[in-house]
Amino acid sequence: MQPLLRYPPAFQMELRADFIWRCLHVLLYGLASVALGLSCWAHQLISLAPLILCLPLAFGVLAPLAWRHGRSEAHQLIWDGQAWAVRLSPALHLDASPCTVRVLLDLGGWMLLELRLPDTGKGPARRMRVHLALSRRSYPNQWHGLRSTLYGYAG
Questions:
Q1: Phi–psi pair at 48, nearest 5 degrees
Q2: Cβ of 77: how many Cβ atoms within 10 Å?
Q3: Cα(148)–Cα(155) distance, rounded to whole angstroms?
């Protein structure tokens, strides 16, 4: 007798980048500006005094840009019972694209997901990847359903 394959039931969820993920973007941009400044100082391109004055200014300019970059549009993740799909911009009313979902990091109350869209065959960025950081705190009512669906289907 052939065992029956059971898939999790249909599931749909609107996702946005988590607050901590956005904070990490700001920190990364800040570290990059410090590294650039220290590199210039080490190569004697600038003296230490202007460096100390310019770093807070550079961080003040980069922090809002990093905050905005860390903010992503809403994505709608859809499991139809057999395959994953993602609607990258529900506001534009685009059709959902098939995708694969992979859990890159799971800390129980926080997850990093990678959504891979199909190969378009055009240019170096032909296979688009979207990384989403999610927390239980941001999705308390849907967290269990998301985890059950992600781990209930191993494909």
A1: -70, -35
A2: 24
A3: 14
Question: CA-CA-CA-CA torsion for 14, 128, 114, 132, nearest 10 degrees?
Answer: -50
CA distance 17 to 70: 7
Residue bearing tokens 């994505």? 75
Collapsing DSSP to helix, strand or coil, 40 comes out as helix
Tokens coding 91: 């506001």
Based on C-alpha coordinates, what's the Rg of the chain?
Answer: 21
In the chain, beta strands by DSSP E? 11-15, 75-79, 84-87, 97-98, 100-106, 110-116, 129-135
pTM beyond 0.70: the answer is: no
Residue with tokens 């590199």: 39
Spatial distance between the Cα atoms of 48 and 145, rounded to a whole number of angstroms? 54
Q: Mapping DSSP to helix (H, G, I), strand (E, B) and coil, where does residue 36 land?
A: helix
Give the containing element (helix H, strand E) for 28.
helix 19-42
pLDDT under 50: residue ranges of the chain = 1
The predicted-structure confidence for 98-112, as pLDDT tens digits, reads as follows 889 999 999 999 898
